[in-house]
């Protein structure tokens, strides 16, 4: 169902007369909304926020290593879901392990992943303003990645059917564009650093440099080389600590680390599908400044 945030007056967003859109969640959401909004937030928390399939895990691993003295051994020894829990995963399916408690009980500094839209973050987030990385990714890449991800869990339709439901904003956390734009419009919040998947693909060292600076960390050239190695697609694909298993058994479809490309959609989508997604972005994003976020 669609859920619209009720309390959003504290959000320092740059959109005049902003009223958040309703976002797509499971029915579980309403039962836990209050608990979520009241959740504690600490100043030494580290948050990673995104729309699903935007490269969240990649950023989490980068941030965790940078904040933990590049301890790759510890990173490989413990699953990312334990080091960097997904705040609201319990809201996606009642069958999934309930996650608020994990986050609550984590030793500080806590590392927290979330796909919540701006309007649904815990109220305390806006008072405390913990350091946060937001990542966005091209809509066509997100669409393809989201299809394969959903197919691995529950989805039985074709790519075409999935894309049609995606542009109708029927997938979890949709609408996608509003999700990205709302985070972009928090650009004056200096606790939030914005990065993109494409930027990380193009030249990872420059993103790593920004993230190190943001957290006040500095590493030698040789140490950073090991970090780039650790964060490469091949290394992450072969690292069980950053891959996910399907809770319902072995995944039939694609692995979590599927392709890791910035322009794979050019081969994976038909011209008609590309056209449909481009028209959708044009319609949803009339503002030319905002349009740049989706190129
Ligand atoms: P693809 O399905 O296009 O391969 P999220 O973590 O938000 O769910 O995003 C998953 C996407 O990020 C997947 O995209 C995955 O392959 C990609 N990804 C993860 N680690 C990566 C890396 N080290 N390099 C490039 N892409 C990576």
From TrEMBL:
GO annotation, biological process: sulfation
InterPro entries: P-loop_NTPase (IPR027417), Sulfotransferase_dom (IPR000863)
Keywords of this entry: Transferase
Molecular-function annotations in GO: sulfotransferase activity
Region Disordered: start-end pairs: 245-264
Cellular component per GO, a single term: cytoplasm
Presence of the UniProt keyword Ribonucleoprotein in the record: no
Pfam assignment, any one: Sulfotransfer_1
Compositional bias segments (type: Basic and acidic residues): 255-264
Domain Sulfotransferase: 43-284
Family the entry assigns: Belongs to the sulfotransferase 1 family.
PANTHER family: SULFOTRANSFERASE SULT
Protein name stated in the entry: Sulfotransferase domain-containing protein
């Amino acid at each position: 169902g669609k859920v619209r945030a009720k309390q959003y007056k504290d959000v320092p967003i740059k959109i005049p007369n902003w009223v958040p859109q309703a976002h797509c969640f499971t029915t579980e959401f309403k039962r836990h909304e209050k608990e979520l909004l009241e959740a504690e937030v600490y100043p030494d928390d580290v948050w990673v926020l995104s729309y699903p399939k935007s490269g969240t895990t990649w950023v989490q691993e980068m941030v965790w290593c940078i904040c933990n003295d590049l301890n790759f051994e510890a990173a490989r020894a413990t699953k990312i879901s334990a080091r960097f829990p997904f705040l609201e995963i319990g809201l996606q399916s009642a069958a999934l392990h309930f996650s608020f408690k994990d986050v609550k009980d984590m030793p500080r500094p806590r590392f927290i992943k979330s796909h919540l839209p701006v309007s649904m973050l815990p109220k305390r987030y806006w008072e405390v303003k913990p350091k946060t990385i937001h990542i966005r990714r091209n809509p066509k890449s997100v669409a393809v990645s989201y299809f394969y991800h959903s197919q691995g869990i529950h989805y039985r339709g074709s790519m075409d059917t999935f894309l049609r439901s995606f542009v109708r904003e029927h997938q979890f956390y949709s609408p996608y564009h509003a999700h990205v734009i709302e985070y972009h419009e928090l650009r004056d919040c200096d606790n939030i650093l914005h990065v993109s998947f494409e930027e990380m693909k193009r030249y990872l060292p420059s993103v790593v440099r920004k993230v190190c600076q943001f957290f006040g960390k500095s590493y030698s050239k040789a140490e950073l080389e090991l970090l780039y190695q650790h964060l490469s697609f091949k290394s992450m694909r072969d690292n069980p600590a950053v891959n996910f298993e399907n809770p319902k058994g072995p995944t039939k479809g694609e692995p979590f680390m599927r392709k890791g490309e910035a322009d794979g959609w050019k081969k994976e989508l038909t011209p008609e599908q590309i056209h449909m997604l481009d028209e959708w972005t044009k319609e949803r994003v009339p503002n030319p400044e905002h349009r740049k976020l989706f190129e």
